[in-house]
Design brief:
367 residues, alpha/beta, seven-stranded mixed sheet
Amino acid sequence: MSSLPVPAPTIIPGKDLNLPQKTLAGPGPSNVSERVLQAMAMPTLGHLHPEFCKVMDDIKAGTQYIFQTKNAMTFALSATGHAGMECVMTNMLEPGRTVLIANNGIWGVRSKDMAQRQGATVKEVNCEAGSNFSLAELEAAVKAHKPDLLFVTHGESSTGVVQPLEGLGAMCHANNCLFAVDTVASLGGVPLKADELEIDIIYTGSQKTLGVPPGTAPISFSPKAVEFFKSRKNPPTSFYLDLNWLGEYWNCWPDKGRVYHHTGPVNSMYGLREGLAVVSEEGLENCWRRHRLCADRLHEGLADLGLELFVQAPEKRLPTVTTIKVPEGVQWNAVTAYCMKNDLVEISGGLGPTAGKVWRIGVMGNN
């Protein structure tokens, strides 16, 4: 008889973990390939062993490829996509700095929340759910508010909208403003070349088009963004997301060696490396094309069923996340529950401004 005051749970000892294979056709995570899962099952190494440092270097190179950037300050956070957003706000903002949030969905709402927690001055420019911003609208807002940073969501997964980025980086720089972009729901599914677009900070998550389990977030900072970080008056409010420490752990700072910051999730990083390798082997342009073709085929099938897409203008639709209007008289959650119960297929409801109004179907990675 054990003397421990808290007994061992009866559900764990002697029981094998047995989980069903589901088709994850929601807005993420996407299904993970056997190749990535096998990579993650490789032996765990120390977080500063030379073999793992090589994995980190491979991830850095793969991240530069998928972002199409030559930024030296490029790495992957040991956390989900939300941490990418938090990392932007933590390192770029402090009291006395101003950020302009382009808000057309839930990620505008959450980025505003994170920015306010840094003590920065937060301004907003808004448009209705299901639409995006023109270059002229964002330029007018930048000129009016004179921010240090413009934050834009490339793929607004709550509404199924893609935001054009052409011209925004140059416009920001002409107005002494940095340009940050969330690509969690879009990267790999929508053409994007960060350096050509003059993006200063860009991040994504592992669990969407990369087809890697949630838990890592590739991110990159331009030289302008790094200099802006170095001009801070105060240290970042988060030790874990401090760019100075992260840059050292990932060996991104020139003339500095790699140092311990945190214990990286070694096996998760194996998976990210493999997911990046898969995209590299396919070719980024082929990956973009595949997602576009699959989204078009989905849209045609939905039209054949008599269903209406939430985003009216085809050029504003995000290929990776499709939003479908729930017909009048139909319970959205009854449909999603039916799909899960009978076919083990995940289809999600709306989120934020689309809650209760749409279904969301993800076309990303293996799906």
